[in-house]
Amino acid sequence: MDWAKLWNDIVTYFETNVWNIVFFFVILLLGVIVIKIIMTVLRKVLSKTKMERIAQQFICTAIKFCLWLVLILLLLSQIGIQISGILTAISALILAVGMALESNMANLANGIVIVSNHMFKKGDYIMVDGVEGNITDINFLFTTLMTNDNKKITLPNSTIVNSSVTNLGANAKRRVDFTFSVAYESDVELVKKIVAEVMQSDGRVYLDPAPFCRLKTMNASSLDFVANCWCDNEDYWDVYYYVTEWVYNEFKRHKISVPYNQLEVRERKDKVSVPVIGKKLPERVEKVRVDKKEKDVFNLIKKGLSHKDKKKDKKEKKNKKEKNLNAQNVAEVAQEKATEDNKDKNAQTKVQNAEKSDAQENEKKSKRKKK
């Protein structure tokens, strides 16, 4: 490599493009200052809105990326590089990345929908797609839940948007529902009074609206009462367990029985006679198994014998048919001969009758002549 020529080319480039290089650094300096000013103003404006912090961060990041991209393209154009090819390459790259990350792009779009619509916030207790828990983190791709047994569940945002979401922590107050079953001999008014007093005894329960208890269902083996009361959202489980335990204790104190399934077992003392079918188990009879080759030979022999039998039967049928034809022909000949004999006899009879009639007429004529 000719280092002297390379150095001369560099010197020549800087001598001929000195103003382009100056403008390059001016544009770079101004661009950095303008980007910082725009981002500072944008963050202040977004901080005064009610938009979620994660949405603000996403918007600032996207705008900052676009501003830096424009600045880089201007700098490349200033030093004489054609940016049309670069724009084409960037477009193709964005298209390829979008196709490869199609599911992530869907999660990103759904994340924007979740954050912008304020569907829920961090700390809310939600139920979605068969799981439930407190929201610990929301980003533009995934939502993280923490269950009551301290399990971390990460759900794609597309799953949350396309499913039915129950937000149990959306409001400050929450209703606690109960169902209590007692025996039919229990006093209905006493049961209602006990349940209401237990709920009112807890200072975490609101007295307005007042606790509620009524008989709902008369089942086959129990009377079912429904009850509910209101409390703060964070006190839900404490109130639920408190009321359940104290209602049970008060039922026992007032001799109110709680029905449950019972199993009755009796001892059988009669003798059972089971009929026996057959005398005894038959002895094993081994199956006769034929080898495949022997079976094939046997089938061929069987086919050959059956072919000969068919020929023999065909020949016998032919002979029998010929005998039947001969017997039929003999019978026809005999019948024809008998018919001819009958005709001859009839002809002789007619001749004899004619001769007799002629003889009688001759006798009559001779008698007339004699007279």
Can I get a quick summary?
This protein has 371 residues and is an alpha+beta fold. It is built from nine helices and eight strands.
How many strands, what sense, and barrel or not for the largest sheet? Answer: 5 strands, antiparallel
What letter string, H or E per element, gives the SSE order? HHHHHEEEEHEEHEEHH
CATH 2nd-level architecture of one domain: Orthogonal Bundle
User: Number of helical runs?
Assistant: 9
Report the principal-axis shape: elongated
Please, could you describe this protein's structure?
This protein has 371 residues and is an alpha+beta fold. Among the domains are: 3-100, Orthogonal Bundle (Helix Hairpins), CATH 1.10.287; 121-167, SH3 type barrels, CATH 2.30.30; 173-253, Alpha-Beta Plaits (2-Layer Sandwich), CATH 3.30.70; 323-354. It is built from nine helices and eight strands. It has helices at residues 3-16, 18-47, 53-78, 84-100, 102-117, 157-161, 188-201, 236-253, 292-370; strands at residues 125-128, 131-138, 142-146, 152-156, 165-167, 173-182, 212-218, 223-232. The strands form two sheets. A five-stranded antiparallel beta sheet has the order 4-3-2-1-5. Helix 2 (18-47) runs antiparallel to helix 3 and helix 7 (188-201) crosses helix 8 (236-253). The longest helix is centred in the last third of the chain and has 79 residues, at 292-370. The radius of gyration is 58 Å and the shape is elongated. The mean pLDDT is 78.
Topology summary:
Elements: H1 3-16, H2 18-47, H3 53-78, H4 84-100, H5 102-117, E1 125-128, E2 131-138, E3 142-146, E4 152-156, H6 157-161, E5 165-167, E6 173-182, H7 188-201, E7 212-218, E8 223-232, H8 236-253, H9 292-370
Antiparallel strand pairs: 1-2, 1-5, 2-3, 3-4, 6-8, 7-8
